[in-house]
Specification:
Length: 430
């Protein structure tokens, strides 16, 4: 990492975490499609299992293809370690469970619908109570939710689908003043547009399904540990202080002092629950990352142009893109997203549900499906799909009224995309 830190983003996205000479000179990261790895001797097996020596045993918990991906994303984010997982929801869940074990987590209410549903249905049954805050930037409201057994704060840097931008630096300061780690889902921004670790985040998670891979071909997730000196033994995280037989009766911080959070995710949650990313999918994410800068730059520019077009359209009641004049998050966008605000945003369709459906059925270039961050441009009505788990009251409270239409801008010609929207508006009225 010492050499990688000195290199630019576009160098790291091509080279970090991989040395061809260590892999028969292969220019591409090989796909190590192997269940297990030769240990060599029973003596070495004992050393590996006691973590006295680090090495590969079994692909469920570690594989060279996964390792190259993990090291590359950690380098791009400015972190010290990463764990790759089978989905973005696995990354969110393992991060929340690992930090919040037998306690509480303060979490943003304006969040991806699947995560919000897990707040209610899954995490409490697994011993983590979720305290949601309607406006994550209301620091007084966040502070009022801190209890003796609060273990972490969880947010999205840029939320899906209405582009709420979290004031990560202010939230990190508040969290650290109270002995809490800040966990940031940075899926929409990616480390190209925003590195939350530079503003105090302790853990960053990604759905690699989205912009990191960028081609709609895989499902994956990643957890990155910042390594910024957060003290997991200060008292709010007793599970990090527990002596573990398989660690030689040491705790996780003693065993893995440089990256205890990532190590605990790998040895507990990944090792025992098993949401393993396949080597082939790890390879495909690496391929996507090699063009991350170019894709996000064009998608941000095209999204800005389309958002400006929509903001002047008579059939649009509002547009959520944060760099537009008058947007409530414009100042935060200028601070945290100087390279652009990404390719995903929403707008309000001025019309009834039947007209919205006609509009959605009239687009020709935009694809109607639930992914985002794809090379293709996508469209969907979030209240009825990606956030259908929320009640009508929750949708209104989180800024997703019935007229919400979400766009994920791809790599097509921006003028063709605008023309497609224009003809769809016309068709919906006819």
């Amino acid at each position: 990492m010492s050499d990688s830190v000195k290199q630019g983003f576009d160098t790291l996205k091509i080279h970090a975490g991989y040395t061809p000479a260590e892999h028969q000179g292969s220019i591409q990261v090989p796909i190590y499609q192997s269940t297990a790895f030769e240990i060599g001797s029973p003596e070495r097996a004992e050393r590996l299992l006691r973590f006295e020596e680090f090495g590969l045993l079994y692909t469920r918990v570690g594989n060279p293809t996964q390792a190259a991906l993990e090291q590359r994303v950690a380098a791009l984010d400015g972190g010290v370690a990463a764990v790759s997982l089978a989905s973005g929801m696995a990354a969110v869940s393992y991060a929340i469970l690992n930090a919040g074990e037998n306690g509480r987590v303060i979490a943003a209410g304006q969040i991806y619908g699947g995560t919000y549903d897990a707040y209610r249905k899954v995490y409490p049954s697994l011993g983590v109570q979720i305290d949601t805050v309607a406006d994550i930037n209301d620091l007084d409201a966040v502070r009022r939710l801190i209890k003796p057994d609060t273990r972490a704060i969880f947010i999205e840097s840029v939320n899906n689908p209405v582009n709420v931008i979290a004031d990560v630096e202010a939230l990190a300061n508040l969290a650290h003043e109270n002995g809490l780690p800040l966990i940031v889902d940075n899926t929409l921004a990616t480390p190209y547009l925003w590195k939350p670790i530079e503003y105090g985040a302790d853990v960053v998670v990604y759905s690699a399904t989205k912009a990191l891979s960028g081609h709609g071909s895989i499902i994956g997730g990643i957890i990155v540990e910042a390594g910024n000196g957060f003290n997991w033994l200060a008292g709010r995280h007793p599970h990090f202080a527990e002596k573990v037989f398989t660690f030689g009766n040491r705790n996780v911080v003693e065993t893995f002092p440089a990256f205890p959070f990532a190590a605990r995710v790998r040895t507990y949650y990944l090792g025992l629950l098993g949401a393993t990313l396949s080597p082939f999918d790890a390879y495909l994410i690496i391929q996507g990352i090699e063009t991350l800068s170019e894709r996000l730059k064009k998608q941000s520019e095209s999204a800005q142009t389309i958002a400006e077009y929509l903001s002047k359209h008579p059939k649009v009641s509002w547009v959520s893109y944060p760099t537009l004049p008058g947007n409530r998050y414009k100042a935060l966008a200028e601070k945290y997203l100087p390279k652009g605000a990404g390719g995903v945003f929403s707008f309000g369709y001025r019309g009834d549900e039947r007209e919205i459906y006609r509009f959605l059925n009239s687009v020709k270039m935009f694809s109607y499906h639930a992914n985002l961050g794809d090379a293709r441009s996508l469209i969907i009505n979030s209240p009825h799909t990606t956030h259908h788990e929320l009640t009508e009251e929750e949708k209104i409270a989180t800024g997703i009224p019935p007229e919400t239409v979400r766009l994920s801008i791809g790599l097509e010609d921006v003028n063709d995309l605008i023309a497609d929207l224009e003809q769809a508006f016309a068709s919906a009225e006819s």
